[in-house]
Amino acid sequence: MNLKQVRRCVLYARLSVTKEESVSIARQLQSCRRYAEARSWEVVGEFVDDGVSATANRPEERLGWKSLLAARDFDAVIIWKVDRLARRVLDFLHADETLQRRGAGLVAVEDPIDMTSPQGRAFAVMLAVFGEMEAEAIRARVRAARAQILKDGRWPGGGIPYGYQSIPNPEGPGRVLAKDVERIGWLSTVVAKALRGETVNSVATWLTDSGAPLPVRRIERTSGSKSWNRQTIDGLLRNPVLAGMTPHNPGRAKSAKRADPFAVLRDEHGSPVVNEALAIITYEEFETLQRLLEARTVPQARKRSERQSTSALLSRVARCEECAVFLCRGTNQKRPILYCPRCRQTIGRAALDAYLIDRLLSERAEELVGGLEVMEAWARAGNDDKAQRAVLVSQLDTLVIRRGVVGRYFDEDRVLLAWSSSR
After folding, report:
1. pLDDT value at position 222?
2. How many CA atoms lie within 13 A of 237 on its CB side?
């Protein structure tokens, strides 16, 4: 890329977590605009990934960067610093290579990089190396701090298990877990029912009918809904805190969204560290409970004759972003859903199907499938969901569903869709 030939540019900004010392998205974009203005470049687009970690998400996995690559007619991408684009050297080089293939270059406001010369490219790679080293140093500090907190018996933060609450540590700094008087009785009854062999579906129904208080986070997400679901129950029953143990999963793979219930804090002899004040069952009972749960292939296992039929439109079409496996069809409270058989994330079908059909017919209407345009082929499919699926699949390259907040409203940002190349 020759900077003198640049006429049109786009801006890109990214931020993992907003902190006092962070350079905000707005400040990043402002600096990029000033850079473009000083060189008389026309800014034809601004793209943002807010709340996205560069360590956990490669550029091509981010919505903002993917939208940038889908844009047209720009000669350069302006970023604030190299680490706003990538924290890994390979990620940086791959992103730069993608831009080069389309004749665009990369410019960093705070890092004077020149990707047109071997020396400039080497310097850019060095900056990416330092960014990767900084990210690893941050991870190491976080791991060490968490390990010390757990060793001290304090609560490290995160989602508080149902039936418990976080209170100030009476013996020093930080916070510790304690039983929640309002909910611990409900939790004990849920565990007792599960140990007797009752299904998670029946337990969820009983909790809903009995008016049991929901988990605090679920109250916030469901905007007043008082219904329990099987995923919530399954998660409660797999939490090792039931036996007074502390979950501890150092180095757990990103795809392993459901934690190993026996990955817990252990002493120097390898035995689980147990806080009797938190336990409501013994370790042996916890083992029995896990065997019962694993004996069911899915939390809502039912006889085939009793299962509610759902549309085949997305059968073996959508994949889970975290686990890279096809999502399965199912129902939740009699509403059709897709769910991941591994990490158990779900997404409602009603809004998802309508969203996909709308995009198919608006963005691919004139593409050909079997000698017909998509619009005509779809009309001929009528209400035959298998025929509709064939039309959709003919146009799809990938359909990935990312984990999100499950609630009343459809979030299209969870849907990562890429059409196949035009025929």
Report:
1. 47
2. 31
